[in-house]
Amino acid sequence: MRSPYFFIVKPKGERYSNMDGGVAVSSSIEDASATNRFAEVIATPLSYSGDIKKGDILVVHHNIFRYFNDIKGKRVSSNSFFKDDIFFVGDDQFFLYGRDGQWYSHADYCFIKPIPVRQGAILKAGSEEPLLGIVVYGNPLLEEQGVYIGDEVLFEPESEYTFHIEGEKLYRMRTKDIVAIC
Question: Residue 52 half-sphere exposure, CB side, CA atoms within 13 Å?
Answer without folding.
Answer: 30
